[in-house]
């Protein structure tokens, strides 16, 4: 059994999809990061970086419990544990890994920053941050569209953890105000993955999580300052 500590964020969605696709049993533990539950001592013991997702595998290496954070590392661990969603040949393996790393280094940070300035920095008068992150996201959308014109999935002919890593971030195209329909190959890939039974199951689960999760409007100013590392929580 694998315990998952997460929420409805794209990085947690990756892990839910992987676990479901791989047929691994798991228990989900919702972490209310909007109200700083990730700063509680019990969670800091799981991840000193205080971020979701985290997994605890009761049957880890050597049969011992094993705790792991960072969604990219979790995807690789689960793929290697099961031999699923990652090619067996070494070249295919590393082609898949490169796209997982690419998502971690670019799509995640660029998408996260764009969402931040669109939703959570309404008082920012400088247009530069939003323009910069929108440009970077458009570059990535064009990159994926070009690659998917050559093959059915991000890393090749197979559905892999590379697709699992990227798909939840493309789900935010409307929030990010990015034109998915202008990229027909990316659009077709996005719809095809979204139609997978397992992905639909996870999407339904996330919808229920959102209906019970905290919302920004319910956060105190101190909660928001800690969540965004600003105000009195900012270090010079």
Main sheet: strands, sense, barrel: 4 strands, mixed
CATH architecture type of the largest domain: Up-down Bundle
* General shape: globular
The SSE order reads EHEHEEHHHHHHH
**Can you list the strand order of the major beta sheet?**
2-1-3-4
The CATH topology of the largest domain comes to Glutathione S-transferase Yfyf (Class Pi), Chain A, domain 2
Just give the CATH class of the largest domain: Mainly Alpha
User: What is the strand tally?
Assistant: 4
**Radius of gyration (Å):** 18 Å
Q: Give the termini distance in whole angstroms.
A: 43 Å
- Our estimate of the beta-strand percent is 5-15%
Number of domains: 2
Unreliable parts = none
Helix amount, in percent? Answer: 40-55%
Structural class: alpha+beta
Q: What's the helix and strand layout?
A:
Elements: E1 2-6, H1 10-22, E2 26-30, H2 41-46, E3 54-57, E4 66-69, H3 71-82, H4 90-120, H5 128-148, H6 161-170, H7 184-194, H8 197-212, H9 221-228
Parallel strand pairs: 1-2
Antiparallel strand pairs: 1-3, 3-4
Describe this structure in words.
This protein has helices at about 10-20, 40-45, 70-80, 90-120, 130-150, 160-170, 185-195, 195-210, 220-230, and strands spanning about 1-5, 25-30, 55, 65-70. It has about 240 residues and is an alpha+beta fold. It has two domains: about 1-85 and about 210-235, Glutaredoxin; about 90-195, Up-down Bundle (Glutathione S-transferase Yfyf (Class Pi), Chain A, domain 2), CATH 1.20.1050. The longest helix has about 30 residues, at about 90-120. The model has no long low-confidence stretch (mean pLDDT about 90).
